[in-house]
Amino acid sequence: MQQSLFDLLGSEFDYYKTQDSNDDWFWHFKDYPKSNGLKVFSCFACGGGSTMGYKLAGYDVIGCLEIDKRMNNIYIKNHNPKYNFLMDIRDFNNLPNDELPKELFELDILDGSPPCTTFSMAGKREKTWGKKKKFREGQKEQTLDDLSFVFIETVKKLRPKIVVMENVEGLTKGNAWSYVQRIYKNFQDIGYKVNHWLLKGERMGIPQKRHRVFFIATRLEEVDLGKLDMSFLYNPIVFSKIKSEEGTPIQSETLNELLSQARYGDRNLENACLRLRGKHSFFNYCLVYDDQVAPTVTAHCNNIRWDNKCFLSKKDIISMTTFPQDYDFMSDSIDAVSYVCGMSVPPVMIKRIAERLKPLLIKEEIV
User: Fold this and answer.
1) Each residue of 88-104: pLDDT tens digit?
2) Would strands 310-311 and 304-305 be described as parallel, antiparallel, or unpaired?
3) Inter-CA distances, 287 with 133, 183, 312, 364, Å
4) What is the distance, to the nearest Å, from the Cα of residue 75 to the centroid of all Cα atoms in its chain?
5) Same-domain pairing of 161 and 19
6) H or E, element range at 63
7) Distance (Å, rounded) from C-alpha 32 to C-alpha 227?
8) Other beta carbons less than 10 A from residue 68's beta carbon
9) How many Å apart are CA 175 and CA 198, to the nearest integer?
């Protein structure tokens, strides 16, 4: 796994003066650049976080695959895909090749973010591996821990030049490391070289601490993944730089009581609960400080602004996840906004990766 010098030096160097600064977290759909002609297809498309990242880098995202009908409707509303497949990826893999558009076999990049609930360090992890469950992702009973391997079957079917597969940091930790080894083997078995990187959103110009592991694979003999630079040294964007004027009021007496016991520097409300009740709880209610990069936005975002003791606003969440300011969530609910944004890869995160991959694809004609 590639690390930057600042990873190796330790935490005191985390925010050393870096080489890049940016404000491209704030954008609108009209800001897409002219297409460079490179074609992408997105699996597990969700709200289109990856789709928007590739488009911001100039790629043409020609279609998507999504299992959740409601999420798919939101995707169509915002991205108007040329090809849209609303189905389980397993069913997609079983479609006869002659029933699929020819363009899907001419892809520059096949992108996929297999649902990662089972590998989250905040979840039950091993207890859920190999077991069927009715997850919100798709609203059907299915296993999730094998979807990376199902996605590799999609790679085998479509044979893209490059593959980008994203998952949570927890995939590389503890017993889950065996999955990483299997991912490498499965890619190699179908003729693809592969490498992976742990990337940190706060070092990529993302206004939140979003850590994700990215697998990049290629069938191109001339591409040396060992020389692919995936170190990013953007200046950190602290919350005060992107926050809206007001947050969302907290109606819960319990939370307000805990906030009265919270101290500056607490990561979440767990310590306040310990002080007040002697119990370890409420650790999912993270505190957001003006002078720090905000914690990760999750699908069920309970992050609380320290400045005015309110939940984040919808605008806060949109900016922290680098979604466009004019994205249509098809709902005014803050829960809908946090779910779509929290489940999606931050667009600017993918933009950074796509820009690094572009020279591998655009400098020559590859057959």
Assistant:
1) 999 999 999 999 999 99
2) antiparallel
3) 31, 36, 10, 48
4) 15
5) yes
6) strand 60-66
7) 29
8) 21
9) 17
Kindly state the DSSP code that residue 175 receives in the 8-state scheme. G
Question: What is the structure's pLDDT at 116?
Answer: 60
Instruction: Identify the domain containing residue 325 by its residue range.
Output: 239-341
Give per-residue pLDDT as tens, 321-354.
999 999 999 999 999 999 999 999 999 999 999 9
DSSP state of 113: -
If asked whether residues 42 and 111 sit together in one domain, one would say yes
Residue 230 shares a structural domain with residue 251: no
Distance in angstroms (rounded) separating the CA atoms of residues 352 and 57: 8
Residues 6+ positions from 296 with CB-CB distance below 8 Å? 208, 209, 210, 211, 286
Cβ–Cβ under 8 Å, residues 16 and 316: no
Within a domain: residue 151? yes
Is a pLDDT exceeding 90 seen at residue 310? yes
Do the Cβ atoms of 268 and 284 come closer than 8 Å?
yes
* pLDDT reported for residue 7: 47
Strand partners, 322: none
Residue 104 carries which DSSP code? G
- Count Cα neighbours of 34 within 13 Å in the Cβ-side half-sphere: 0
CATH at residue 351? 3.40.50.150
Instruction: Indicate whether 367 belongs to any domain.
Output: no
39 and 164 assigned to the same domain: yes
> Does the structure show a pLDDT above 90 at 235?
yes
CB atoms within 10 A of CB 135: 18
Q: Could you tell me if residue 339 is left (phi over 0), alpha (psi between -120 and 50 degrees) or otherwise beta?
A: alpha
Give the residue among 162, 32, 179, 52 at the shortest CA–CA distance from 107.
Answer: 162
What are 146-191's pLDDT values in tens digits? 899 999 999 999 999 999 999 988 887 777 778 899 999 999 999 9
CA 110 to chain centre: 15
Name residue 288's beta-bridge partners: 305
